[in-house]
Design brief:
Length: about 900
């Protein structure tokens, strides 16, 4: 990949043309993106509850209603009734309206000399005489079907209830049309407003759009200002902005092409791209500026930046994308769309970052601040380098204190988890003084809430609803719900039967009960028109429907309410009768809770993916596990804070962890890769820690502070989820920064890393591996790992590898070139002991314990040697025990061979000495 990027740098016009071309094509598609505020995207696909809901809609019609509330001193006065009639007539003509109920559209049940009259409550024209109006008032207020449903008991409020079944684009247009009709009938003394699903969804969408157009750009502006103040270069501010905007354009354009709409979930993707994309860009720019400050020219600095950044960027992008891909395997449409949009966006961001940042740096002149006078030595500027140097010392000296504080914070966070509650309450998303909250409360207090669900009573047999026992159970269930104080109104076929039975007994309320005779019940129902019963009984009277209206918007509270209803129904209805609640609000709340929990639990699979990839990258399960610690703790803390502050877990607040994991993974991989590089350079873990903190501290601190400031700006939103998102995300950014600067160095200080990338790039000649006694039985792959855990030392011709009399514990193997082992005699002349070519081994005794070198070893040619110290042996044994076993066996074999050679040489020397002494011995005569 580095070669490809270097090619792009060498041919910038082609790279720029490619970026510009793709950006223009996708920008042209942005206008095609669809805004989806429908409930379907929040529902669980292939959910039996969804199938049951769809079946209920087929039987009883839509549960999606709008209530137009009309308030007056007396709603039975002519002006109020005229307004109700005009509204009812006009609303019935609107597209998408399936049913309109109001005082001017419903029939009335009235007894008259032993007969039942089911004529309309109000005729074609509004009467003006007092007697007729008084009769209408008396009839309406005595009808249990109408009171609390269409008219308040004090006659100061009435409603036009409109059932709709529009498409995803229906809500906004319908809301505007209703407001226009309300304006046309407005009159002095009347207060009229609408409330319901279309109005709520339209208001919800407008809040999102307002924040997208105002606060989010302001948040980005604050982020950019902080970056400018930190780096004091325009490139550090504008390059992330350019790549961020291009990433959003690519993502939204691809979403439009692929048919992924902009909804409550996918609307968060641009913020995600900005947060993670800025992090990547700033890391690259920090490396570039550091190289320029050290004296590199622009092109060399860009090439080196790409070489150092390509691996961590590839790994972080791959892990983050794979983490979001797991969401597409859920069965909630909105979550699947969010998973695809996030994965596409982060992939696009990776491509744009890797191509765009080097190209923009090529075009951008080197900032004057980075220029140094000729001959001036490089010295770290600002407060970050000395701060990082101090922090490294503090971490090493106070590691127990650090772990103790970490344990206390974690324990406190976990304690907060006990108070964490999964709860979706869309109404609470709006401020208490907002228009929609005020309307909902006024409607609830004046008449009945606009939140609706169905209680479907399935008897399992034809005409089962006409069974008196079933109808009494329905009536008892309605009475129970009224006693809970949580249900504003409910209407069922039992209300009609009770009202008709009362009217057949001269209006005596003692007979407002379910009669014992199934035949009488059947006769009552025959008197009603089909439109009156269509919403409450199916065609063969096997299933009844109770329409329930309330103002409980919390999914947690609704679940408690439904649990009580189900328990009462189980104890009241015959065993063969099933009672089941359904409705759009129930399905949406359940799905939203499911999504929140799924987002929460999906981080388990995301972390597993991250751990596996990091374990493969660093070729160590331990390293993979350690890399998760600084990623997990900020998330643990964020959910703990939510519990302590009573912030519920929902689709909005669960997104905070999404941002946290993206940022934390990015910083961790950069930190670990840089630490590995510094450790190979310094071969000292403390020095490597200090160098890593000095290199990575600046981008980590600057990005974290900038993102935190940007997120905190969102707290000024009028939308509660945006406020919570801003606060929690800002806090998590700071927590992730602390974890990255304190915990990651502490964990790495006791770890020697080897990356898969490094192993692939190590050059170890195969003939050396095959011929060296030290590497006998090892694969080329294992030999490369030895190189990385040990090290390669280059020597120029004439350089000494060791000198006689030095103490050392290193074992050497010649990889290329030639060495000579020699000593200097008493006469000052060199005496050569051995010529050492490739694959030769030196110092096999010293590696088992400090030994004084017995000879000089000098390079005859340019040479490269593998160095393995006793510390390296320990690392190899700990990280790769099977490879270590082979290595120890080979060292033993080399030692055995050396001992054999020395023994043979000594035997030969002793034999020669005895022979010489024997030749001088003369036997006596």
């Amino acid at each position: 990949m580095t070669r490809l990027l270097h090619w792009v740098v060498d041919h910038p016009a082609i790279g720029a043309a490619l970026l510009a071309g793709v950006s223009l094509v996708l920008a042209s598609q942005v206008v095609r993106i669809e805004l989806d505020t429908s409930a379907e995207s929040f529902m669980v696909e292939n959910d039996p509850a969804r199938a049951f809901y769809d079946e209920a809609l087929r039987k009883f019609g839509s549960d999606n209603l709008t209530v137009v509330l009309v308030k007056a001193d007396d709603v039975f006065a002519v002006p109020a009734l005229q307004a109700v009639k005009r509204l009812s007539d006009a609303l019935e003509r609107l597209d998408g309206v399936t049913r309109v109920e109001s005082l001017t559209t419903v029939n009335n049940v009235r007894g008259d000399d032993g007969t039942l009259n089911t004529d309309p409550l109000i005729g074609p024209k509004i009467p003006t005489d007092a007697a007729a109006l008084a009769r209408i008032r008396a009839d309406a207020l005595s009808n249990r079907v109408l009171v609390h449903n269409l008219v308040s008991p004090d006659a100061r409020a009435t409603a036009v209830v409109v059932y709709t079944a529009g498409t995803a684009h229906f809500n906004r247009a319908f809301t505007v049309q209703v407001d226009r009709l309300i304006a046309q009938v407005a009159a002095p003394g009347l207060r009229i407003f609408q409330m319901g699903e279309p109005f709520s969804k339209t208001t919800y969408a407008s809040y999102i759009e307002r924040d997208q157009l105002t606060l989010i750009p302001l948040s980005i502006a604050v982020l950019l200002v902080v970056l400018f103040l930190a780096f004091r270069t325009l490139e550090a501010m504008l390059i992330p902005l350019i790549t961020g905007v291009l990433s959003i354009v690519w993502t939204v354009g691809l979403m439009a092409v692929l048919g992924i709409p902009l909804n409550a979930m996918t609307a968060a993707v641009p913020s995600l791209l900005i947060a993670i994309g800025f992090t990547e860009d700033v890391h690259m720019i920090a490396v570039y500026e550091e190289l320029v400050e050290r004296g590199s020219d622009k092109l060399t600095a860009i090439r080196t930046m790409l070489a150092e950044s390509s691996l961590p960027l590839l790994v972080t992008s791959a892990t983050t994308v794979l983490g979001f891909v797991t969401l597409v395997f859920t069965n909630v449409t909105g979550l699947v769309q969010f998973g695809w949009a996030s994965s596409i966006g982060l992939t696009a961001n990776f491509i744009i970052t890797m191509l765009g940042v080097p190209l923009l740096l090529l075009l951008w002149p080197i900032p004057r601040r980075l220029h140094r006078p000729a001959g001036e030595a490089h010295a770290p500027r600002g407060v970050i380098p000395p701060l990082m140097h101090w922090l490294a010392g503090f971490i090493v000296r106070r590691r127990r204190m650090v772990w103790l504080l970490t344990a206390l914070i974690t324990a406190g966070s976990l304690a907060g988890w006990s108070a964490l509650r999964v709860d979706t309450d869309f109404m609470s998303y709006f401020p208490e003084r907002s228009e929609i909250r005020q309307r909902a409360q006024e409607l609830h207090a004046s008449l009945a809430g606009s939140v609706t669900f169905y209680l479907v009573v399935d008897t399992g047999m034809e005409d089962g609803v006409k069974n008196p026992r079933v109808l009494r159970a329905i009536a008892d269930l309605q009475d129970y719900m009224a006693r809970t104080g949580r249900i504003d109104a409910s209407v069922s076929v039992a209300d009609y039967v009770r009202t008709m039975n009362r009217e057949m007994h001269a209006g005596d309320r003692a007979f407002e009960t379910i009669p014992d005779s199934p035949d009488l019940i059947a006769q009552y129902l025959l008197l009603l028109e089909g439109k009156d019963l269509a919403k409450y009984v199916d065609f063969n009277a096997s299933t009844a429907n109770i329409v329930v209206r309330h103002n409980v918007t919390s999914s947690f509270e609704v679940s408690k309410l439904l649990a009580g209803i189900e328990q009462f129904a189980a104890a009241t209805f015959p065993r063969n009768v099933r009672v089941r609640a359904t409705g759009e609000t129930i399905l949406v709340n359940n799905a939203a809770d499911y999504m929140a929990v799924n987002e929460f639990t999906s981080f388990g699979s995301t972390l597993l993916i991250i751990g596996i990839i990091h374990a493969l990258l660093f070729m160590s399960v331990r390293a993979g596990g350690l890399s998760l610690v600084p990623n997990v703790l900020p998330i643990v803390a964020s959910f703990g804070i939510m519990g302590l502050l009573r912030i519920p877990l929902n689709t909005g607040t669960a997104f905070v962890a999404t941002v946290a994991i993206g940022i934390a993974v990015d910083d961790t991989v950069h930190h670990m890769v840089t630490y590995n590089r510094q450790l190979n350079l310094h071969n000292d873990q403390t020095k490597a820690m200090v160098a890593t903190l000095e290199a990575e501290g600046r981008p980590i601190i600057y990005v974290s502070l900038a993102l935190a400031a940007g997120f905190f700006v969102l707290m000024f939103s009028s939308f509660v989820p945006t406020r919570q998102l801003g606060f929690l995300s800002g806090v998590v950014m700071l927590l992730a920064m602390v974890a990255e600067l304190v915990l990651t160095p502490l964990l790495m200080h006791s770890t020697r890393l080897v990356t898969l990338w490094n192993v692939l790039h190590v050059k170890m000649p195969r003939d050396v591996v095959r011929s060296s006694p030290l590497l006998r039985g090892l694969s080329t792959w294992e030999a490369r790992k030895l190189v990385l855990l040990g090290g390669l030392r280059p020597l120029r011709a004439g350089d000494y590898l060791v000198r006689k009399g030095e103490a050392g514990n290193e074992l050497y193997m010649v990889v290329s070139g030639r060495l000579r082992a020699f000593d200097v005699g008493a006469d000052g002349r060199e005496v050569t002991f051995r010529e050492l070519g490739s694959a030769s081994v030196i110092g096999e005794v010293a590696v088992l314990g400090d030994r004084v070198r017995s000879a000089h070893v000098v390079a005859e040619t340019d040479t490269e040697v593998l160095v393995i110290s006793d510390a390296a042996l320990e690392r190899i044994q700990r990280r790769f025990p099977f490879t270590a076993a082979k290595l120890y066996r080979n060292i033993a074999a080399v030692l055995s061979e050396r001992l054999r050679d020395q023994t043979a040489a000594r035997t030969l020397a002793e034999g020669a000495q005895r022979a010489e002494e024997g030749s001088r011995f003369v036997l006596p005569q």
